[in-house]
Fold Quinol:cytochrome C oxidoreductase.
Amino acid sequence: MISWRKHYKKTLIAIGLLLSTSASFYGQDGDPKNGEKLFKANCTACHALDKQVIGPPLKGVVERVKTEGGVDRDWLHKWIKDNKALRASGDKYANEIFEKYNKTEMLQFPNLTEKDIDDILAFTTNPPAPEEKKTEATPAPGADAAAPADKSTTNIVIISLLAIAGLLVWILVKLRQLVKLGQSEELTGLNETRVRSFKEMYEKFHYVGKGIIAILAILAAYGVWNWLMWIGVYKGYKPEQPIYFSHKIHAGEQKIDCQLCHSSAKYGKVSEIPSMNVCMNCHRTISEYNADHYMEPGKDKAFYDGEIQKIYAATGWDPAKQQYTGKTQPVEWTRIHNMPDFVYFNHSQHVVAGEQAIINSFNKKNPNNKIDVVCKACHGKIDTMNVVQMANDFTMGWCIECHRTTEVDMNNGYNKEYFKNLHDKLKKQYPQDGGKITVDAIGGLECGKCHY
């Protein structure tokens, strides 16, 4: 009895040890699903699972560091939390990795807990399979559905042929009646009063003819004038670009500020086309497209991935080696907004000095289509366009109308002091408007402002 109890106690101890070991093992492995969330939040800027980005691919990293450097999970915990301190301690493998990847220092993540790191490593070891998208299959039309359609088409053809045949019979009857009429005495009398030549017709109806010619001449002159006035006006123009770029995705969905790419629009005369290096600030780490809900109809992931590869080809970027090759290809963008050479337009004058005035004026005239950025007053709601197009006429009349209706902001210190005398004069001249000052009152209609 005593020996059985001893054996029972040993068995319980063994089971307890086994359970504790198993719990420790699974706790160390972590949760791959939570690790996926943490990986996307902290790691995807520099790493991918299956390819090198800025840093190495992380799929199977636990086994890889064990094979290459003879280190374990504890080493990975130290590396992720503070790789700089690990290298400073003289760790051989840590310094080898630092040298191998061009001395690019990895970010430190002291905020991650031990469990967070275990979850991330569990994800890199055994990433969950992506969920398959449910697609509703459209049932193919069967033979029974096709048969009534064919029968209906046949009936329409038969009815159309019968109608044509009836029309031909009616025409033949009328022709026969005309032939009989030509043989009667009534037609002889009509022939005597008939106009026999164009000259006789002109003499008889020359006043009507001259009136019609005059009207046609006026309409033709107006048509030519209208055509000349719209030369160079390309509202709605949206050319296809060598690299597809969606403002809806970048400025709309991702909320990227206009001036991050068009840096000279605010303080320069022109809004330059951004260089491809600006694109590479983000696309150095974004090498593929993974946002299905942003896709434009008719375009798929392969299309967007191909456009990103065009950026790499233009800049000479090798995504596999994560370095520039020096072989660049210039991108021949098609310009959309282009002022004639005899027109002077300064972006900074409108974006800085006139920003709030333009926004207020536009929103007052368009209460149901308000804007929050001054750029949209001229260029339209760019953040909703997949392909940029000219949203306005950009004619001289369009600019003048804006100058006549946009009220100058007299509350800022510069305008209040600079136009003080003018402001007082307008208050006396236009008391009914409260001395409202629009752009035309401060020289906005002077020819030399835009033409020189």
Q: What stands out?
A: Residues 15-27, 135-146 have pLDDT under 50 and may be disordered.
